Amino acid sequence: MTPSENDCSARYAVTLTFDVNRMHHRSWSGLLTNAEAVAFAKRDFATFRMQLDRAILNNAAKRHGRELSYVPVIEGQGKGERIHYHCVIVTPARIGLLEMTKAVKQAWRRTYFGNQQVDVQPMRDDGWLGYIAKKAWTLRQDAVDFDNVRLGECPKRC
After folding, report:
1. Which of 5, 37, 109, 145 is the most exposed place for a label (fewest CB within 10 A)?
2. Number of domains comprising the chain
């Protein structure tokens, strides 16, 4: 049974945006390349993930190495598009929408390139997975951020 099928979990559809101007300023050449933007995005998502794990799982994240489940997809890699993440995050069922929204926004603020536009919604069906995976089924295999995919187990005590 996957964490998304378990009674003791909640699934959230999350969209995270980046401050592209800040990325341009950090670029080595001053002209942000797609590869640089993706590298910046992946690094920021890893920071976000660690911050959110600590906020939601408290000491279990540090002491026992527990993690939430994450399926992140990078979009906006085309010319003239704004880079952003769509992701599914699975938490213990005790985490409600208000608590999750607050934790996501705080964790995203702690990243270097995180922008203020953040959306957190309960994931009610698998349609969101189809939506965020649309680029993964094309030739854009770099759409799924496999470096940051985590499929943690639901804790025994929810």
Report:
1. 5
2. 1
* Percentage helix, strand, coil for the chain under 3-state DSSP, each rounded to 5: 40, 25, 35
pLDDT in tens, 54-99: 999 887 666 667 889 998 988 877 766 788 999 989 999 999 999 9
* C-alpha to C-alpha distance for 127 and 129, rounded to whole angstroms: 5
In a domain, 88, yes or no: yes
Domain membership of residue 76 as a residue range = 3-148
What tokens appear for 62 in the block? 């540090």
Handedness of CA 13, 79, 134, 67 (dihedral sign): negative
CATH of the domain at 136: 3.30.70
Exposed/middle/buried for 88, CB within 10 Å: 0-12, 13-18, 19+?
A: buried
Q: What is the DSSP letter of 87?
A: E
Evaluated on CA atoms 133, 102, 40, 2, the torsion sign reads negative
Is the distance from CB of 18 to CB of 41 less than 8 angstroms? Answer: yes
Q: Give the pLDDT confidence of 96-127 residue by residue, as tens digits.
A: 999 999 999 999 999 999 998 999 999 876 66
Instruction: Examine residue 156 and state whether it is found in any structural domain, yes or no.
Output: no
